Amino acid sequence: MNATTTRGALLAALACVLVGGSFTANSLLGDYPYAGGQFLRYGLAFLLLAPLAGPGARTRLRTLGPGRWLRLALLAAVGMVGFNLAVLAAERTAEPAVPGVFVGCAPVVVAVVVPLLDGRRPQRAVLYGALLVAVGAFTVQGWGRTDGAGIAFSVCALVGEVGFAVLAVPVLRPLGPRLLSTVVCGIAAVESAAAGVLIDGSGWLRRPDAVETGALLWQAAVVTVVGFVCWYMGMQRIGAERATLFSGLIPVAAACTAPLVGTGSYGAAQAVGSALVCAGVAVGSGVSLRFARGGRPAGRRQSAPERSLEKL
């Protein structure tokens, strides 16, 4: 890997580690209205990101046509608000590991879908790496009690995780990581408020207590602001296929941080699963091939979208 792809890999890895930590923070928000919490999270993130959107932000937004605005709305609805709603709904009748296992399959889906949308065949190295990542995520989390509804909502969570990457590809270039993160957070805040009124009525928002405030601040300032920008910067450099490989680090980070708040433990299964995830990332990103060739870059020919994204 060259310097650009190395930075992209590190940024994607950092973003996924932060998101994994957010699962632990979610355990501290069990009694807080879901939609209200999402509104506060994304609303605060929007306010923090807006000054960082970069020069010419309004001009770039005015150049977007209706189709791209619709894509941004779908990205927020499916990949952010919908994803979290699906996880919450799945955990009502299934153990948390069940949606986690389905979300861990996202690298496999993205490794197939993105090349097909681009008119090319999936790359074997990325696909093999994605399969290893999915197996590793399953090993970290195991399988738990569930029913048909739990599986159905877990599939919806998988769709949301895939949509968060795939729907962003065409709008990442014109907006850039910071402005894209800013816009989708603003849209997600509005969508969360609308969902809260429809689902919870007048009780959709209340003042959080001290613990809930800390968890919401962590999710807004660190997971959303830092995590989203790093994620899209990573996608910009290495493409959606390779960036999504690092989503296997989400359950690993969740398993590592859960003992800190007493909601889980880290044992042999988590260690083996973590090793499989790391191996999958190494295979899919080309790191293993690089070392097999004596440290020389693998020299993979980039697709046109990846070349154009690296110029940003």
Automatic annotation (TrEMBL):
UniProt subcellular location: Cell membrane
Record-linked SUPFAM superfamilies: Multidrug resistance efflux transporter EmrE
Keywords from the UniProt entry: Cell membrane, Membrane, Transmembrane, Transmembrane helix
Residue span(s) of domain EamA: 7-139, 155-283
Transmembrane segments: 40-57, 69-90, 96-118, 125-144, 150-172, 179-199, 215-233, 245-262, 268-292
Domain of life: Bacteria
InterPro entries: Diverse_Substrate_Transporter, EamA_dom, EmrE-like
Membrane topology listed for this record: Multi-pass membrane protein
Record-stated family: Belongs to the EamA transporter family.
Descriptive protein name: DMT family transporter
Organism encoding this protein: Streptomyces lancefieldiae
